[in-house]
Amino acid sequence: MPDKILTPFGKDDYEITNQELLYQGVFRLSRYHLKHRKFTGGWSKVFTREIFERPSAAAVLPYDPVLSRVVLIEQFRAGALAAPQSPWLVEIVAGLYSKDESPQDVVRRESIEEAGSEILDIHPICEYFVSPGGSNEYLKLFVGRANAAQPEGFFGLDEENEDIRAFSVPSKKAFEMVKDGTIKTSPAIIALQWLQINQEWLNNLWQTS
Q: Catalytic one among 160, 162, 176, 200?
């Protein structure tokens, strides 16, 4: 095994030779002409990549450590039109953020807007690039202490064409929904798998704080 797991490549090891704006709407599509250093030495030739550019996002899994339940949401997603079953997807609360608002503030606000659920405490899970082969989207993922006793409700902002169903399920049921493929979105899958591993530790943290 090599001593170094990661290469030393960084910001000085690639060069953008040209950038074209192909589309600007709510999101942006750009074409990059670039080159980078190679693992085998030297530089690659200049090549092009089209990148879907969007603001960074934050997501939270509302979790009730007393009832051992999680709050999930379901909504229509145009990006899932090709899904064999349905383009209505089970997800967790999420939203975009800018420099004017912290990721933690975003998920607290979005949890009220999308699920009617107040986040009482918050703990980071991880952060990651969602699909770096073709998008620059970066997501920060959290778990939030919440009250999951509320009944099913319907939420979302009319001006954003949101139609969101919020519901709570026992955490064990949510873990099964990941296992059987009912849940198909990466933030929900990662957050629930993290909770399954760390549930006892998290319960101790929040029930004693």
A: 160
Residues 79/132, Cβ–Cβ less than 8 Å: no
CB-based contact 54:150 (threshold 8 Å): no
For 105, the token pair is 């503030």
DSSP state of 14: E
**pTM for the complete prediction?**
0.92
166 touches 62 (CB < 8 A):
no
Residue pair 70/62 in contact (Cβ under 8 Å)? The answer is yes
Superfamily of domain 57-208: Nucleoside Triphosphate Pyrophosphohydrolase (3.90.79.10)
pLDDT single digits (tens) 147-156: 998 878 999 8
Q: Which residues, 6 or more positions from 98, have their beta carbon under 8 angstroms from its beta carbon?
A: 55
Is 160 labeled as catalytic in the residue annotation?
A: yes
